[in-house]
Each structure stands twice: as C-alpha cells, then as structure tokens.
Design goal:
Blueprint: E1 2-6, E2 17-22, H1 33-40, H2 47-55, E3 62-67, H3 78-88, E4 92-96, H4 109-126, E5 132-138, H5 141-151, E6 153-154, H6 162-171, H7 177-183, E7 186-187, E8 191-198, H8 218-239, H9 251-254, E9 258-259, E10 262-263, H10 264-269, E11 273-279, H11 288-292, E12 314-320, H12 332-343, H13 348-365, E13 370-375, H14 388-391, H15 397-400, H16 404-426
C-alpha cells in the first residue's frame, strides 16, 4: 500500500513532498543464553506468512522512520524499504525522512533534529491509526534521531489534572485504561518500540581511529578538527566537540544526559529496545568505538565468522545492560581543554580534553541498555572498495551488495520486537 503525505516545513530550503510506504557490567557475548534465545527466534517468515502479510490491507499502527546520514537523501533507503515492507507487512507505515537532505545535514545536529521531530509529529497527526513508533537511522542520522526523539518526548508523569483522577482510582483498586496508557512515556504521542542506529558517531569523530579514512595517523587526525567547519559546517564543530563557548559543554556531551535543553537519556529509555550496528573495520567514515559506544579498552578482536548464514558479515551480538552512573559533567578542566581545542587542536590539552569528554559521554549513554551488533566486512570480495559505511543500508546494490545480510538481520530484529510487543499486550 502506498500513500502520499504532504508535510509542511518551516525550512524553505527543504523539498518535502513525501512518498510514504506502508509496510559497570561488561557486555555479554552472543554465546550467552539470552542472546542465543534472541538469535534462535529470529526466523525468516514462511511463504504463507509473507502472503498473508501482503494481503493484509488493515490500517497501519506502527510508524517506522528511516533517517539518512550526511549529504544523503531519502532514496538511499530504497533497498531497505523494500525488504522491510516484505518482512514486516502492512501494519507498518515506513517513511524515509526527507527534511534533512544533502546540504541540510551541515547546519547542525540540533537544527536537523528539530526539523526531523516536526516532520514525524505531522505524520503522527495525519495518520490517526498509528499507535507505536520505531526509528532506524544511518550514520549522522543517528545523532539527528537522538535529538529529535528528545524534542518529541512526553514523560510518564505529564498528566496535569488527570493525575488526581488516576490516584483516586488507584486508591480504590480501580484502573482507568485511558489514563493508564497516558501514564507511559511517549514519543510524538506514540508508544516507543525500537531505536536503532547503523554506523553512527555517538561519541563524535575526534580521537584515535574515530575517523578511519585518516588511517589513525596522529598528524592527520589533529589537522581534521580545524578543517572540519569549512567542509561540513556547523555540524563539523559539533562532531569534533568544539561547538559553542569554551565555558559551555558541547552538544554531544549535553545529549548524553538529561539537561535543561532536553531529557536526552529519558527519551532513549522510553524505547523498549535500543540497538547499535557498528562496523569493526573497512568503514572509512565512522570508527568502531564511536559507533558501538565503547571505550578503547572494551574493544576486543571480534570473531571472523558470521553468526548465521542468513546474516553474512554480522559477526557478534552482545547485550550491555544499563549501568547506574552519575550524569556526565563538564568541569573547569574540561572548559580549559575545550578552549585549547578551539585555538590549538593539536595541543596536548586538546587531546586530554577529548579523552575526558569521551569517557563522560560513554558514562552518560550507558545509563540505558544497548544491544550491540558488530559487523565485519573482512571476508567481503572487495572490502576496501565497496565502502562498508554505506553497505549496511545497501545504498547502491551494485557496490554495496555485501550488506544484504546486515539488512536481513535488521529486518528480523524489528519483526522479533514487534512479536514481543504483541505477546506482552496479550498477557
């Protein structure tokens, strides 16, 4: 089923005629019982199931938003959309975001995030049958999505005068279903199910091998920071953690906390499942550490064999439980380091600043649990040439065909979580 949604947008530079398709604890290795169970039940649908899904013309109730990365466009998701529509069926409304195409990705993560939030809220208003929302974002789109969900987040305690009615009903041992539903946190007024990123620079791009096309050469990595704003605009400063005044914490650090700008961690916690796909190697733009939200000491040599024949190049799945830790901080020492990074990016103070902030961001983001999927294209036919950064979404089937197994894993992950939601609802 296909429907055209005309989405208005305050940014006149965006062309938004949109075609939408329905459709502390260490990580545990995939070998543990929890992840074995997760993998064993991610089965491909039978031909009969696929036929029944395609024949189901009921109204969609699950909004799935696809968010592209830097200097990209909605059409980059075409292959993924076709596979997801086939796997998930007509209960999903699958929409590739169109408000941050090409140069609009360079104006800042916060500005792009607000545009994305506005786009999603308009879709939610136009399709009243929607009840749930999931987001899949690639590369820089993962940061846009993290900002956007915070702008759309409604905390569970936001009941105003209805809270008194609910408390009175609870004292009498009664429950009002409408109030109970509203008590749960929402994203754009919808139940939040999946938040998934693929090769997204959650910790920025400054640091050892965080920007792989520099080959880990210290001199090149030091030169990248001052050049970035001229190449990728305001977004570049934010990715290198040098945006704003020296006395103010950079945007990515704020986004790893609940702060006056937004409840960034609470918004992520609203989702039932959070998954990061990270390329172990051959990703020329985003490093393994930043895309998997890990410290350098937490990186270990991954298995070389795929976990399953259906998921070629997916080599490891692990689960990182939430860690109870203090919110990230920005002390005077950090401010001095930021000032040094803004003036002299190659100084020792600047290097120490980035190390400090990376640790703070990891501590902030580990306050919620994550399932981490490691992808390695070492066995690809031409691992250097097919550009694994874009292979995860098979941006172009001619060059990124090696990523089809990753897309299959993504589709099954979404399908399994959908099954879990229905099981929980029936209990």
């Amino acid at each position: 089923m296909r429907v055209d949604l005309s989405i208005s947008n305050t940014d006149e530079s965006c062309n938004c005629g949109i075609a939408t398709d329905y459709g502390g604890k260490r990580e545990g290795h995939v070998g543990n019982m929890k992840d074995r169970k997760f993998l064993s039940i991610m089965q491909q649908p039978s031909e009969k199931q696929e036929q029944s899904e395609s024949d189901d013309d009921s109204e969609p109730d699950h909004l799935l938003i696809l968010v592209h990365g830097i200097l990209a466009k909605p059409g980059d998701w075409d292959y993924v959309k076709r596979k997801l529509m086939k796997r998930l069926g007509s209960k999903f409304l699958i929409h590739a975001s169109a408000v941050n195409s090409f140069l609009n990705t360079l104006g800042g993560i916060d500005h792009a995030g607000r545009r994305l939030a506005s786009e999603i809220e308009q879709i939610a208003e136009k399709v009243p049958s929607l009840k749930r929302i999931s987001i899949v974002a690639h590369s820089l789109g993962g940061l846009f999505a993290r900002y956007a969900v915070t702008m759309m987040y409604t905390p569970k305690d936001d009941l105003t005068e209805d809270m008194y009615i609910l408390e009175d009903l609870e004292r009498r041992g009664e429950e009002h279903p409408v109030f109970r539903r509203r008590r749960e946190p929402k994203i754009a007024g919808l139940e939040a199910v999946n938040f998934i990123t693929l090769a997204s620079p959650h910790l920025g791009v400054r640091g050892k091998k965080q920007l792989p096309f520099l080959f880990g050469v210290p001199v090149l990595e030091k030169l990248a920071a001052p050049i970035a704003p001229f190449v990728v605009g305001r977004t570049g400063k934010q990715l290198f953690l040098t945006d704003g005044k020296a006395s103010d914490p950079p945007l990515l650090l704020r986004m790893a906390s609940d702060c006056p700008e937004g409840l960034f961690i609470s918004a992520l916690r609203a989702f039932k499942s959070r998954v990061v796909y990270a390329n172990v190697s051959y990703d020329h733009l985003v490093g393994w550490r930043t895309s998997s939200i890990r410290r350098e000491c937490e990186l270990s040599k991954p298995p070389r064999a795929s976990i399953d024949g259906r998921y070629k190049h997916v080599v490891n799945v692990s689960y990182s439980p939430a860690v109870d830790s203090d919110a990230p901080s920005f002390q005077q020492e950090s401010a001095q380091g930021k000032a040094a990074a803004q003036v002299s990016p190659s100084s020792k103070k600047a290097a120490a600043y980035h190390d400090m902030l990376e640790e703070e961001m990891v501590r902030g983001l580990q306050q919620v649990s994550w399932r981490k999927v490691d992808v390695s294209f070492h066995a690809a036919l031409w691992p250097f040439n097919h550009m694994s950064h874009n292979a995860g979404i098979v941006m172009d089937k001619r060059f990124h065909f090696e990523g089809t197994g990753v897309v299959a894993h993504l589709a099954d992950t979404l399908a399994q979580q959908e099954q879990n939601v229905f099981i929980a609802a029936s209990l």
